[in-house]
Backbone:
C-alpha cells in the first residue's frame, strides 16, 4: 500500500463518493475502490458501509482521514520546498498534432519553475509512443486514450477531454454534419490513429456509404485543405494558431460527438517520480 491511499481517502471524504475522488485524484473509480480496500487491509478495520447502492464512509474513515490530513499537508510542503530542486532529463513522447499547441507553453513553464529539468521531446503516433514507454525508451508520453482503455501495466493520467468536431469550408451553408458530408468530399484522418478511428466510426454512422477522398496523418494539413474548400473532416481543434491561419466552419456533433481523452502515460514504477509530477502539472496548466 502507498501513502497516496490516505490522500485518496481524504478525497473520498471531501467529495462524498468514489467517483468524485477519482476526478480529484486523476484515477478511475475502480482504482479508488482498490486503494480503499488495500487501506482497510492495512489498518485492519472497515472504513465503508457497502451494503447499499451508494458506498458510505463510516466514522472510522473520518477519524483516519482527520489523523493523516495534517501530516500529508506537511509532506506536500516539504516536497515542494525550493531547496529540493527538480532536475534531470525526461524523455517525452507527444502526438505530432499536439506539438505546436502544447509543447512551447509546457517547456516555457518548466524552464521558469524548474530550470534544472530538461525535456527531450519525441513525436509519434499514440500506439508507437505507448509501446516506447512500455519498452523504457520514453519516460512518459502524451497520447490519446485508446478506445478500449489503457494497459493495466502502465499508469494513465487524464489531462483533458475534448469533443471532436466536423470542420467545413468557411463558405459552406449546410447546417448539419450529415448534409455537409453528403455535399463535400470526406478528408479522412489516418484510420490507424485513435482520432482517425473514432472519426471514421462517426462519419459512417451518419452516412453509411461515405468513402474518403483523401487520407492524411497530419491535422494541420487536413485543416488547411478544408479551409481551401477541398472537403470536410472530423478532427480535434486544439491549436488556436491553426484556427487563425486556416479559417473553417466548426460544426458541433452534439451529444454523440466522439470524445478524445488526452492522457499522460508512464510506467507504474515511475508514477511518483518528482520530475514527472512537475511535467504533469505543466501539461495540465497548458491545456487549461
Residues:
Amino acid at each position: 500500500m502507498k501513502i497516496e491511499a490516505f490522500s485518496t481517502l481524504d478525497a473520498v471524504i471531501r467529495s462524498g463518493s468514489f467517483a468524485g475522488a477519482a476526478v480529484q485524484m486523476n484515477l478511475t473509480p475502480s482504482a479508488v475502490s482498490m486503494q480503499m480496500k488495500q487501506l482497510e487491509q492495512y489498518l485492519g478495520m472497515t472504513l465503508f458501509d457497502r451494503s447499499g447502492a451508494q458506498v458510505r464512509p463510516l466514522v472510522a474513515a473520518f477519524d483516519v482521514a482527520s489523523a493523516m490530513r495534517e501530516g500529508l499537508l506537511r509532506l506536500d510542503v516539504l516536497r515542494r520546498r525550493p531547496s529540493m530542486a527538480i532536475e534531470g532529463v525526461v524523455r517525452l513522447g507527444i502526438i505530432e498534432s499536439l506539438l505546436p499547441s502544447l509543447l512551447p507553453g509546457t517547456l516555457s513553464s518548466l524552464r521558469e519553475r524548474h530550470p534544472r529539468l530538461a525535456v527531450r521531446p519525441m513525436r509519434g503516433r499514440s500506439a508507437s509512443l505507448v509501446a516506447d514507454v512500455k519498452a523504457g525508451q520514453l519516460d512518459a508520453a502524451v497520447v490519446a486514450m485508446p478506445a478500449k482503455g489503457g494497459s493495466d501495466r502502465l499508469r494513465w493520467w487524464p489531462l483533458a477531454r475534448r469533443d471532436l468536431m466536423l470542420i467545413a469550408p468557411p463558405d459552406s451553408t449546410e447546417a448539419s454534419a450529415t448534409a455537409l458530408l453528403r455535399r463535400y468530399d470526406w478528408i479522412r484522418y489516418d484510420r490507424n490513429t485513435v482520432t482517425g478511428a473514432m472519426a471514421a466510426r462517426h462519419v459512417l454512422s451518419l452516412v453509411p456509404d461515405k468513402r474518403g477522398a483523401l487520407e492524411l496523418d497530419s491535422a494541420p494539413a487536413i485543416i488547411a485543405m478544408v479551409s481551401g474548400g477541398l472537403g470536410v473532416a472530423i478532427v480535434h481543434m486544439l491549436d488556436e494558431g491553426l484556427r487563425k491561419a486556416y479559417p473553417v466552419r466548426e460544426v458541433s456533433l452534439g451529444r454523440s460527438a466522439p470524445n478524445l481523452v488526452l492522457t499522460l502515460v508512464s510506467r507504474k514504477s515511475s508514477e511518483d517520480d518528482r520530475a514527472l509530477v512537475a511535467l504533469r502539472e505543466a501539461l495540465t496548466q497548458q491545456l487549461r
Summary: The longest helix spans residues 59-79. The longest strand covers residues 154-163.
